[in-house]
Amino acid sequence: MAANWQSRTILPGYTTIPSSITSLSFDPYSELLWSGNSHGQVCSLYGLDGERYTSYMAHRNSPVKELCLDDRGIVTLGLNGVKGTKRSAIGKWMVEEPRSSLEAMSMSPGSSEVVAGGNQLDLLVLNTNSGSLVRKIEVPEPIRFLKPGPRSSVVCGDVSGNVQIRDTRVSKAAMQHIQPHKDGLLGIESTVGVVQLGTILFVEFTLLTCHDRFGRVVPEPLVKVYDARMMRPLPPVSFPSGPSFVKIHPRVSTSVFISDLQGQFHVTDLSTSTGTYHMLDISSYVTSMAVSTTGNHLAFGDADGSIHIWTDLEPGQPENFNAFEGIQLDWPSEVQTPPRIDWNDRTPLNSIGLPYYDTPLLSSMPLHMPLPDSSPMFNPPTPIPISVMKGLRTDIFPAHAQNPPENKGKRNLTPSRKAGRSGRNRIGGRQSDEPKFISEQIRDNLKNGGVNNRPRLESRVENLELDISDVANMPKHYRKVEIKYSKFGIEDFDFGFYNKTPYSGLETHIANSYTNALLQILHHIKPIRAVATSQTTLPDLKDNCLLTESGFLFRMLENGKGVNCQSANFSRALSSFPQAKALGILDADISGNHNAPYGNMIQSFNRFLLEQMSVESWTFQPSPQICNNGNMSPISQLLGIESLSVSMCTDGCGSRSVRKGVTHVIEFMYPRKTLSNEVPLPVDFGSILCASIIRDTLTKHVCPVTKQFVPLHSRRIVSTFDSQFPAVLSINAGVHSKENLDIWLNPARRPGESPYSPKPEYFLPFEFGIKRTSDNVQVVTDQDKYDGDMAIYSLKAVIAQIYPDHDSNHLVSIVKISDDELDDNSKSPWYIFNDFLVRNVSPVEALSFSEWKIPSVIYYERKNVDKCVNFTALNQKIDPTILCHDLSISWNRDPKRIKHQVLSEEELPKPGSLVAIDAEFVSMDREEIEFRSDGSRSVIKPSKLSLARVSVLRGEGDLDQKPFIDDYIHTSEPVVDYLTEFSGIILIHNAFTYLTLHSDGDLEPSTSRHTLVPLKAAYRKLRLLVDMGCIFIGHGLSQDFRIINLFVPRNQIIDTVALYQKKDSHRKLSLRFLSWFLLKQDIQLDTHDSIEDARAALLLYKMYKAFEKDGRLEDVLDDIYSEGRRLNWRPPANATTTTNNQISTTPTPTPYEVKIPPQQQSQAAATGSFATIPTIFPSVSQVVSSGIPSQNSFPIVQSTAPIFNNERQAHRDPWH
């Protein structure tokens, strides 16, 4: 061949992921070039310009091994299947062979069938129209290569190097067979046609194993040619570099194209043994090769995903792949580009327009149209339960999980939506029994002339009666309550709507909030509260102490007097225990996992918490004697029952073991179901309690003597004397079956009672007596049968698991308030604590249960508990000298960064002492917000912030404005965002710059250069300041104290946000704006500094007192708001600073000028002291008496301006 081959173009692979071209084929019926890559993607390109026609994923996780085309579409081969597709990329059929590995495929000549083979010992003959399996042809060896043969046969090359010609119409042995080389094949190519000798020709080449090259498989430098009719070899073609791909010219069967991996290809004429060599411009290696039906184009695919096209046509000649017109391709219709609109803030929306439509739009659906609760319209989708997500499998597509048994219900039935989640067919609607946000109430009050409509809403909640028999009539105070968030955050939620009592509730939307029910009970049990609060006074720096965190929480609940609190610090400590995670008592879903078994979790948590508190209360050294037994920890003295566990082998060996122990929680053991011929076992409360304390069981165990697996009889013997029975009994109800619940719902008679006597109304008694017998305990629930040796217990609290429907549950606690803490307006001493909902209820509700109200935990307290316990040995006050100690756990604290000076003992605060405070925080979890279709937004999960730095300044005295606390807080939890722009906290400190490389920095002991303390140490200092009666001055303190999880009475808070807010305005001014306007100071320019912010708040407070004393406060507020509206409530950038040694062009604020009273005018005229009268304050004496220093705080501008006659300032704009 004398053709002049040259490179025509290089086309990209059009793949999103870099991949090699594993197969190429020119379409014999259209002007398309098809390619398949190593990721299973097939792409077709039109013409030599390579315009992409179609692209689709043919085989996942498998390369495209072969491409075969007919007039109806394309067939592709992957490792595990064969796929038929139209040219428009629409799938027709798919045949999967997951257990086999397919390697080769070929069209069967003269039929609409395709043959595929691989590692399996048979060939698959498939119909190209339907994909159905026509037949299987057995082969002796796995097939590596398939090519079309004469008539209806195919040429097969197997793994052993054999070449066979098989008829695909019959399943019989091969027609002809040769073995070109014993070491195997690397490729095969065939063609059918008449050549010079009239022979039928097919060409193949092999790869040989060369032993002199250390066993490496290398290509044989020959292309062997065989006569297919006589099955005899013809003269081979030499190719020194080793052939990898061979193609035969479709029109001239004596012409062969040979290529190697490096990009060198040879065009050879077999009849004359002449040819030409060419080299591809390639940076990788060749992976595939194809020739067009005209023989004028060659295509090479490389490992980089590019396609190289060569041609032997001269310029000006038609460059078609086929010699005929072929199939007309379907191209997408051209979409008219819409006209471009210049969009800006002033472009009206109606200038865009809408397309013409002749049917109503979906958005015009009337809002009053009735919709079922299962409709997705106006109702958020139901979240996937956590139990399902834990079993989610993503290794197989699509991701799937098994539905747990507790979530299974009736088939093909949509479960009803939970109360509070259904939209009730309204957009942005609110349930009629939900409160409005505080901002909405204020706005409505202003519209209604001060009339508040909330009492009518509250009356519907307060007047509900208890109907214990029907879940549909469940009282509203038993339903789950949720916190709603407005754009003003949680401070805008009306907690007071849910609680009108003097007893504080606990908030939700924190992790492990299901523990609120038990924490409320422990708080209202005075002996436990006393031990926990006393633990907070000890100098214990252990970060995660549940007893200490409980004590801090109980102090907040005690001081709250009805103000909602939260157990965030307790929850953080609980989450740090690996045992808690192993027990499954952690609930990270802050919105509440409706399908979680909270009844079981609270019982496990009750066990774990009391055991952990017992261990932690050993911190008292020596252990104080609270009850009669001082040999145990304080918590064990209050709740522990000393016992001996006796185990005896029943196999006759007589082995016996005794083990001492202390039981803090009694687990209810219900009697087994008796047979019809047996005497029924007693199921009253007293009998079950006795059996649960003794725990007489028979289990199989390995005998320590005989080493045999034999029955072992175990029994618990109470060693506690009657007088030493614990002050508090904790009982886990253990209602795990319908039979257990029936015992509570249908109380049985006590043993010995007449069968004709009426059954008790409730299973749970209000009180009972207990005493120890020789080897057992006796429980008496009849008050007439008490004796003097008994310990009498009365019901203190109950935790119930509430099921408002079958898809959700939550916990509530019903607690009896002590007489000395009972509110005078209470109708009964019983209160229900449903998170932050607190309400006075009747005593019956503590004893009544139903299928929607299942008991979980019961607490009893001794009636004479005040005589049984002695708290004189417990300290209830924190040592105030901790404010005089400089504590730091930083390894390399820089003395230059110490900005505080601790208090001396003479400076210790007294009630009413002024201190300024500010804190900085870091983010532990990001906020999740849901945006609805109507444009409204809802906070699904609030951001979780943690204290990172707190600064407290002296508010008076010789060291006024000097910090005495400036602590950075060490945190062991992962920090999501350090909020450096707002907190000033960085990740890692470098001598030249601040870099965010890893989670070390200001909050890590090894890298921090500041005063670093544990959270508990800083919290104890703040708690001490609150207890000492300090008055805190700051800006936005309510939010800071909420995040710190510290309750401060309102009379101890002075918030400059409220001081400088007008009564008739909702606008709250920022500290930066107030400092710039009043103090003439620019703060928070690059970042926030808590000392700077606290000092600014202190100075603003003192200015407020001066304005108030002078009677000019309202005028000043008018000026501030007027200037704020003019500047959009933001101070000008760098208003009082200089940049690049140039004075800022921002005008300096004009001094505030006022009229001096006549008395001062006469005094000033007599002394000539107009120039010395400050314009911010009426007199210098007032400035000094107000405690504001004359330097380094804010400038006191002096003026010689004339005195104005009006009572207001001369102009209103000068305040900046």
TrEMBL record:
Signal peptide (from-to): none
Top-rank lineage group of the source organism: Eukaryota
Activity regulation: Positively regulated by the regulatory subunit PAN3.
Stored SMART domains: EXOIII (SM00479), WD40 (SM00320)
UniProt KW keywords: Cytoplasm, Exonuclease, Hydrolase, Metal-binding, mRNA processing, Nuclease, WD repeat
Subcellular location: Cytoplasm
One MF term in the entry's GO annotations: poly(A)-specific ribonuclease activity
UniProt cofactor note: Binds 2 metal cations per subunit in the catalytic exonuclease domain.
Residues reported in the UniProt entry to bind a divalent metal cation: 918, 920, 1040, 1093
Record flagged with keyword Protein biosynthesis: no
Cofactor: a divalent metal cation
Compositionally biased intervals (Low complexity): 1131-1147
Domain comment as written in the entry: Contains a pseudo-UCH domain. This ubiquitin C-terminal hydrolase (UCH)-like or ubiquitin specific protease (USP)-like domain is predicted to be catalytically inactive because it lacks the active site catalytic triad characteristic of thiol proteases, with residues at the equivalent structural positions that are incompatible with catalysis, and it cannot bind ubiquitin. It functions as a structural scaffold for intra- and intermolecular interactions in the complex.
Family: Belongs to the peptidase C19 family. PAN2 subfamily.
Subunit composition and interactions: Forms a heterotrimer with an asymmetric homodimer of the regulatory subunit PAN3 to form the poly(A)-nuclease (PAN) deadenylation complex.
Role according to the record: Catalytic subunit of the poly(A)-nuclease (PAN) deadenylation complex, one of two cytoplasmic mRNA deadenylases involved in mRNA turnover. PAN specifically shortens poly(A) tails of RNA and the activity is stimulated by poly(A)-binding protein PAB1. PAN deadenylation is followed by rapid degradation of the shortened mRNA tails by the CCR4-NOT complex. Deadenylated mRNAs are then degraded by two alternative mechanisms, namely exosome-mediated 3'-5' exonucleolytic degradation, or deadenlyation-dependent mRNA decaping and subsequent 5'-3' exonucleolytic degradation by XRN1.
Protein's UniProt name: PAN2-PAN3 deadenylation complex catalytic subunit PAN2
Organism of origin: Wallemia mellicola
Gene: PAN2
